[in-house]
Amino acid sequence: MTAAARSLVVVSAGLGQPSATRLLADRLSAAVDRLLRDAGIEPRIEVVELRDHAHDLTNNLLAGFPSPALQAALDDVRAADGLIAVTPIFSASYSGLFKMFFDVVDRGGLADMPTLIAATGGTARHSLAIEHAIRPLFAYLNAAVVATGVYAATEDWGGAGLAADGSLVDRIERAARELATAMTVRGPRAPRDPFADATPFDEVVRSNAVSRATD
Amino acid sequence: MQFGVFTVGDVTADPTTGRTLSEAERIQVMVAVALKAEEIGLDVFATGEHHNPPFVPSSPTTMLGYIAAKTDRLMLSTATTLITTNDPVKIAEDYAMLQHLAGGRVDLMMGRGNMGPVYPWFGQDIRNGIPLAYENYALLHRLWREDVVDWQGRFRTPLTGFTSTPRPLDGVPPFVWHGSIRSPEIAEQAAYYGDGFFHNNIFWPKEHVQRMVELYRRRFEHYGHGAADQAIVGLGGHVFMRPNSQDAIREFRPYFDHAPVYGGSVSLEDYMAQTPMTIGSPQQVIDRTLSFREIVGDYQRQLFLADHAGLPLETVLEQMDILGEQVVPVLRREFAALRPANVPDGPPLHPAVLAADAARATVAPKPEPQPEPAAVAR
Fold it and tell me: What's this model's pTM, rounded to 2 decimal places?
């Protein structure tokens, strides 16, 4: 990848086909794609549909390792320069499927990852789930979550002025701009390779962390 | 190259009969497996160490001492010894004592243990897993090599003027392997000391195994212990055999489907495709095991799971007979033919073991023309 290219991974936990969650994910990624291109950056976008990995996620939790297809999705996330994560809100929080995926992402895999969080739900009454459930999850994972989270209730897809202040289109544009800026400013991430970077043992010994002779 | 069996010592109901062994019966099964290993010419028996049900082997040196008294050539080992929650001073003493009683037929494999509560039960904190493995082993390493040790660290009371007794047999400490499935830090540690590295690959896709062993080999060379291909590598293996592979699959499937270790997750077929598990004919097991060297290079020790998942003892012993008669002799020959001359054919053996092997070779010629496979590999 050249310096002027970025990879963006879009994780969608929608269950229906088509799903409102995927619809929102696509609107967000299209906006980020356009803004990055405007900034002279070539985006490469991968979409991870979690419903395709639902059985593999359960198997990973039970067997302890991912299937080849799930591993490929996890590798995409780990190597990404930016992440859009979209979930339906179930029972006051992200869906179980959404959580299972981020439970098996490598520890540290999202550290400093420019991330846009978004959610869908039947009514606007659930919109704060983004702030009280999704944002703390990504804070724990050390992701660099942009300030604007996008919640789309069913009613947001129609009715009141599409481009009005505070409308869904407006919120998508604002959040996308924040993510595109974060991805531009941070530059390509260099994901940590645990097999390349194990702390050299002689350094551990020198730093006295192993044991000290008292003589 | 060494071939052997390793056991986790689980008490698991036989899903085909519903029968669960008592602890007393399960312990005797482990002993029977060890004695069978010697009988069929395998080189190694290794026992796990666990401190929670449904596992019985909490006291490996007690069991291995008993087996030592009933065997003559079998190497006695562990899979694994908990370097995190055991006192390294007690490990130094216990395994040196075992080494004396077994005539040097002892090596051991360090592991951290993956059962969270074991740490607090033994007064430790699982968040210190790697630092404990580093510090405790550093002390153990010194206790076996320095007669009088002054030492101070984070995790145990300091030592001044301490001598671990008995001293290792003839002053040669047991060979040590470091086992880890997913921590590059442990591969790095094994490389630093020039010790062996064992990857219990049986539950893992081969790409992962390959990267761990590659790291160990690269760092082994970096620390000046020899070329990367001379590092000492061990692998696990997991097989069930019948002459007709469909019979093997039919017979093993209920054990796979119900054993807690596989988690009732993917199908047996997917599991075989994604991990080294091989359920099939002896020839399939031979082919699969030989393919391991394409993943990790020429390696020195191959351990197979034998007794586990509730398999009845008769079946386990039958499986070991197939291993001893049809599989291991072929693997010895094939691996030996493929291995370059500069690559060690096994881990270092204690001088007392080499002397005993030499004495056996000259004093006691076999009454039958059939060569003893183990003697060849050593």
Answer: 0.88
